[in-house]
Design a protein that fits this description.
The complex is a heterodimer of chains A (202) and B (204). Chain A contains eight helices and six strands; from the N terminus they run H-H-E-H-E-H-E-H-E-H-H-E-H-E. Chain A is α/β, with parallel strands linked by helices and 202 residues long. In chain A, strand 5, helix 8 and strand 6 form a beta-alpha-beta unit. In chain A, helix 2 crosses helix 3 and helix 2 packs parallel to helix 8. With 204 residues, chain B is α/β, with parallel strands linked by helices.
């Protein structure tokens, strides 16, 4: 995977966005989630919640996809459940907050990377550019470098893009890249309150 | 109980019942891959504590019966996952065997906290349907056949005492080869829950 695609930034935030995170928090109808998952080729979802994904998770819980959705106890547990589902032929998506990447690090490296498992991480990027509370900044500020070091290609988007077609395209791109390079990839979602509009325009 | 005999007893019961096998790290993948290697065995060589989670994720999306085989150090490290493991394996034949020698053997025999812990009690509290503690090969064989006959989520605590395991080499396959071999065999066996639906996704 080239470093160009590695760093591509997409999103729909503009300087005129004056909306609450709630309005943009994501997909709220189960049918939309089902469409989003089918359209991107994901067949299994697990993870640990973050408020950025609250609507997405609510939709998963309310949908008839419950057999394909499991809430994990910890992020390493989520990675391992996803690896198991992959071994049964599924294409997994794993959501978590950036702090959870720390919890998941051994599972990511010695399991998902080492075994060449093409799962996609959907990460709420708390601590983005050090604009968050201290305990989020401590890992979030260097999250991009951390993912570089462990060899996980990633793309970044704004929380405001979660309900739109560009997010679906990004998930699809990340899935294809994971399959191509035989290992995990990630989509990082910058919370609305940490994003400054121009940074995340395409 | 000789540790190798215990590993073989579990693996042979799994093969008789057409079950996939997942091992925790340490001596177990070394012993199993040396003594009785099969394409339906998945050797977890790192990620200590996560064997049961991998096995349960597979069980959730598969028609196959599943055996998770790990040591006490792995169980103690990964016990926070057990509620999700039990949930993922709900309605499946899921047999979780913990080989308890009360030590981390490959790192030098350090004593673990296992004597302080009621492992069967933990498993029952976290959602397993039945639990059983066994102390010899006959009890193990009985527990395994009951587990496959009854179905559901069974936890078997096999207490083997502080007995040194024979030294076996690491699995000869690279991790990526272990995964590829397993995926291809799972497809061959038709273990996927809905292979038709997935083919549709793959074509898209």
């Amino acid at each position: 995977l080239s470093s160009d695609s590695h760093r591509s930034i997409v999103g729909h935030a503009t300087s005129t966005d004056k909306v609450t995170s709630r309005q943009f928090a994501g997909v709220s109808r189960p049918a939309d989630v089902a469409w989003a998952l089918d359209g991107t080729g994901f067949t299994f979802v697990t993870g640990v919640p973050d408020s950025v994904f609250a609507d997405l998770i609510a939709a998963l819980e309310a949908s008839d996809l419950d057999a394909r959705y499991l809430l994990a106890t910890r992020e390493d547990n989520a990675i391992a459940l996803a690896v198991g589902a992959y071994l049964a032929g599924e294409q997994p998506l794993v959501f978590m907050e950036s702090a959870g990447v720390g919890t998941a690090l051994d599972a990511l490296t010695s399991l998902a990377v080492a075994y060449g498992i093409p799962l996609v991480l959907l990460i709420a990027w708390a601590g983005y550019k050090g604009r968050d509370v201290v305990h989020h900044n401590a890992i979030g500020e260097g999250l991009d470098q951390l993912l570089d070091v462990i060899g996980v290609p990633f793309w970044t988007c704004a929380q405001s893009s979660l309900a739109g077609a560009s997010f679906r395209d990004l998930l699809d791109k990340a899935r294809r890249a994971a399959v191509d390079h035989r290992g995990p990839t990630a989509v990082l979602v910058v919370p609305t309150e940490l994003a400054r509009a121009k940074e995340l325009r395409t | 109980v000789k540790p190798d005999d215990l590993v073989l007893a579990v693996a042979e019961a799994a093969l008789e019942n057409g079950a996939a096998v997942f091992t925790g790290n340490g001596n177990l993948p070394r012993a199993l891959s040396t003594l009785l290697d099969r394409r339906t065995f998945f050797y977890m060589t790192g990620s200590m504590g996560l064997c049961a989670s991998i096995a349960a994720g597979f069980a959730n999306r598969s028609r196959a019966s599943v055996v998770a085989l790990e040591g006490d150090g792995n169980l103690l490290m990964g016990s926070s996952a057990l509620p999700a493991v039990a949930k993922a394996a709900e309605g499946r034949t899921f047999v979780h065997v913990v080989v308890d020698n009360a030590q981390c053997e490959t790192t030098g025999g350090q004593k673990t906290l296992s004597p302080e812990v009621d492992m069967c009690g933990v498993a029952a509290a976290d959602g397993y349907d039945s639990t059983r503690s066994v102390r010899d090969l006959d009890e193990l064989a009985a527990a395994l056949s009951a587990a496959f006959e009854r179905g559901g989520r069974t936890f078997i605590h096999a207490v083997v005492g502080l007995r040194a395991s024979p030294k076996h080499p690491r699995p000869r396959l690279e991790p990526s080869e272990i995964a590829e071999r397993f995926v291809s065999e799972a497809r061959e066996q038709g273990w996927s829950v809905d292979s038709g639906e997935r083919q549709k996704v793959e074509r898209a």
